[in-house]
User: Fold Fungal lipase-type domain-containing protein from Candidatus Methylomirabilis tolerans.
Amino acid sequence: MLEQYAAWAPDVAFYAPIAQAAYRRSPVMPTLPNTQFIRVTDLPVSGGVPGTTTTYVLGTDDVAHRHYIGIEGTQDFRQLLTDADAVPREDNTLTIRVHPGFAAVARAVDEDLKTKRLLKAGYTVGLTGHSLGGAAALLLAMRLEKAGGTVERLVTFGQPRVTDTAGVSAFNRLMQKTTRVAGCDDVVPFVPSSGYTHGGNVLLLLDSPYFEAAREDLSRRPFAVALLELMNVRDGDAFRGHQMATYIARLAQPRTKPWTYTAVNPIVCSGR
Assistant:
């Protein structure tokens, strides 16, 4: 697991500020060499809840011929869990079953990028997002690959599930370039439940210095029950575990000890 963490950690640290900057109220933009960022705010989202808008940031590196996209998530913990109950539906573009609300956000960003011709031919793309933004980033990555684009990397934080097993299999190559970061006291990565599954690599942040790194859906492990039980803590604590600011703070903590769940090993997750 240490080798996996060492391989994933640089990209996780790189994309976290981009995911944070995607929030429309974020006071700063990422600072990367040779890269200019813009923020597109209040983009209408059709097909979802009436009046819904989203925000995204786009970075362009004309030296490396690379774009970076970060999509705004939601900090509304209860609303996200409510939205997660949606039944997956067939997506005409991706030809797989996906979460309709998350797909609507991805489609809005995709159409805006195309209408404004913001993506340059031949440039690779790295994507990120937190919460709903991570789900939309994954679906946007699928749309870009379906259209013949090259997705170089996808890193998400506190991302809910977006598709089913068939959808994960259809985009297996993309999943190999995906790292999902999940906090041990964040229940959002474990929803929606029925009809959905995760793909890609996952980094689970436990109490420092512990972590789990796996190439599978952690919800299939026994400690998933313990994670869901954390919903019984005070509302403010549960909310804090899902915030992007909490992810940023925990990524700054040392991660030197891999942790493997066994029947005799306790969960190393206090929510601190």
